[in-house]
Inverse folding.
């Protein structure tokens, strides 16, 4: 009996030591915490923009590829990384929520052998589910879209930022850059919660050569929020100015960059990408992730 007790104690001690070694190994590695916010407004309508769904999926695939590359460099066994797809506000369709739930990935919830299986299935898992999601959403009769302003106001810190210094926090936003939601239309002086093509706050600058001086002098911008996003990296992709107002990209960039920096996002920690050829934007996404994961 004594020998059995001794052996049992030895097993417990060895197991505990092994767990400590695993924890110590994991602490030597950074982890990614990536949140992807989808704007499923009429920008993805199959009748209005038949190519947009594919462009969105390609951007997200590039994000997933970079997520996997990061894991492969440190070893999947050391992964406590997180990756998720979200909508805001929540879309009250079971199929949408089911797909989003299936794409809420947390490697820390898996044992070491299952982490490798998850890693190997990740690309197809996202591609197949996103293809299904966009197939449904692009044919919808009603497009609620994303409430980006209120997401930043109410949810971004809790949703996107882990205080653990071992995590690199990233928010990816898929949007055309025109910010609007029916529940988010506020303004104060020259500050706004929305930017739409026909609004004064964008039309004012289209034919003005010195528009940036005007923008700065009169303190135009999105409404200020009391956020400290210094621990967050932001990638905005698929900004699509109206074909007859290409200058809108520069104006949208000005609004978003000012807004991010006012919330303490460092200039080197965000990237705002104009919709373009997949090969071009893929390289931009790759460069963005390389920069934030190697510094």
């Amino acid at each position: 009996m004594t020998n059995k007790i001794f052996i049992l104690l030895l097993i417990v001690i060895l197991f505990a030591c092994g767990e400590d070694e695993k924890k110590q190994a994991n602490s030597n590695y950074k982890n990614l915490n990536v949140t992807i916010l989808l704007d499923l407004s009429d920008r993805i309508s199959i009748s209005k923009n038949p190519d947009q769904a594919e462009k969105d999926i390609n951007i997200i695939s590039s994000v997933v590829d970079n997520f996997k590359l990061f894991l492969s460099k440190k070893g999947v066994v050391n992964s406590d990384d997180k990756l998720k797809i979200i909508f805001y506000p929540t879309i009250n369709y079971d199929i949408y929520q089911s797909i989003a739930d299936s794409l809420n990935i947390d490697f820390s919830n898996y044992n070491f052998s299952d982490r490798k299986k998850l890693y190997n299935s990740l690309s197809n898992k996202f591609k197949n589910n996103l293809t299904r999601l966009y197939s449904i959403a692009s044919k919808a009769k009603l497009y609620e879209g994303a409430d980006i302003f209120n997401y930043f106001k109410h949810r971004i810190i809790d949703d996107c930022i882990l205080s653990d210094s071992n995590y690199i926090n990233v928010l990816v936003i898929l949007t055309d850059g025109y910010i609007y939601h029916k529940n988010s239309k506020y303004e104060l002086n020259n500050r706004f919660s929305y930017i739409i093509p026909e609004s004064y706050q964008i039309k004012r600058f289209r034919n003005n050569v010195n528009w940036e001086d005007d923008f700065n002098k009169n303190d135009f911008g999105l409404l200020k929020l009391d956020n400290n996003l210094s621990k967050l990296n932001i990638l905005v992709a698929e900004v699509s100015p109206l074909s007859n107002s290409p200058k809108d990209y520069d104006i949208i960039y000005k609004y978003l960059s000012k807004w991010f920096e006012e919330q303490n996002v460092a200039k080197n920690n965000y990237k705002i990408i104009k919709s373009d050829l997949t090969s071009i934007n893929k390289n931009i996404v790759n460069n963005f992730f390389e920069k934030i994961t190697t510094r």
Summary: The first strand starts at residue 31 and ends at 38. Residues 9-26 have pLDDT under 50 and may be disordered. The chain has ten helices and nine strands. Residues 66 and 286 are 7 Å apart (CA to CA).
